[in-house]
Design a protein that fits this description.
Elements: H1 2-20, H2 28-50, E1 65-66, E2 70-73, H3 84-116, E3 118-122, E4 125-130, E5 137-139, E6 142-146, H4 155-167, H5 170-183, H6 188-209, H7 215-224, E7 236-237, H8 241-252, H9 267-279, H10 284-291, H11 317-335, H12 340-344, E8 349-357, E9 363-370, H13 377-395, E10 403-405, E11 408-410, E12 412-421
Parallel strand pairs: 1-12, 2-12, 4-6
Antiparallel strand pairs: 3-4, 5-6, 5-7, 8-9, 8-12, 10-11
Helix pairs in contact: 1-2, 1-6, 2-6, 2-9, 3-5, 4-6, 5-6, 6-8, 7-8, 11-13
Length: 425
Amino acid sequence: MKLILNFVLLSAFYYALYKWFFARLSFFTLNRYILLLLPLLSIGIPLAAWFWPNHPIEVNNPLTASLSPLLIEASGKVQGNWAWSQILLYVYVFGLMGSLFWLGWRLYGLRVLLRKATPRRAHNITYLESKETPGPFSFLHYIVLPAKGIRQGQMQAILEHERVHCEQRHTLDNLYYNILTSLAWFNPILYLMARELRQVHECLADGEALKNTSREKYAQMLLSQMFGTEVAIPAHPFFNASLIKTRINMLYKTKTNRKMKWAYLVLIPALGLSTLYACSKTSPEEAVNTQNSEKVMDFKVAEQPPLPPHCDEKTPKEEQTACFQMALVESFTKNFKYPEQALKLGMEGRVMMQFTVNKKGKIVNAEVVRGLAYNNPDQEEAAIAVNDEAKKAISQFTELKAAEFNGTPVAVRFTLPIVLKLPEA
């Protein structure tokens, strides 16, 4: 779930950056490549962060003493259940199938239209004439014009415009976004990016078409078709009512100074910030615990381990350590409650904990340095619940006398492996 959320958030961040800054510039070719790159960055950075190693960092890198593994066996029965991840997966697959079907249906309809069209030639440009299209459009290397509705004076400008779409392979960009929006149909930002890319395509083609006509005539031609019917296929319709206003504004807009190309370097810090955001896995609580960790002594150097009240201080250190661990196991087993969600999902395995017994004999800075593995959002939530329960259980181990060195209380740090085992079916 976090991966999808980061994907949508980064998409929104990059789209806002583009609209606020780059969309105002008339460097349409650069804008085209940026709009092609932004979706890949939006999903690529969260994916890289998902596999980024999450190694805990400790202040002063203190040495820790490893305790014997603690076995926790869950009580109850493992039951199958419908998890939210399964429901969301079915919803996603249903939406994916619907999106791909709609894309395939439109492509099939386009293929039928092209096969029925009649080849024509005008102004040294070959095109197809069709009775089934409401307006001119291009697809791959095909230029398609309606059999009726185009005035003779408009023919050359329209053909030149569509020729640019074909030569610059704008259809491939369009198909690229159609596939992206089918795979990630749940992300509304991709649809907005696709619209911006179509706008850039039209501005690129308009610039070439203006070489053979005046701005006024071209703008008047666009306005005359502003309320026409758009072509509902993955192609480039000439008269796209939703884009015409911006296209006309761009016709009269002064070209951006070439020096402003340096402004595109703003993508570098934006890329760095989004990467840091996606790769950050340390919660505020963990950061505070790390900052507040006190200096600890190597347990091997300490003359006496932390001791519960019933342990004999006059026995050798090895026996004192065994007494300490037995008391720890008893306390942890008594206070640890196997999270119900982890039990239902059938999650078991090894959890590695670290904690410090400070100079006052209190357990502080308890953290899970390696938790249960998970493969979906529900398992992730269950793994977090296990971590929280483990930290809660270890904090219940109280009434300890601090470890000592030369008769002075010292802080020592321990690693406790916890083996979680499910009941047999």
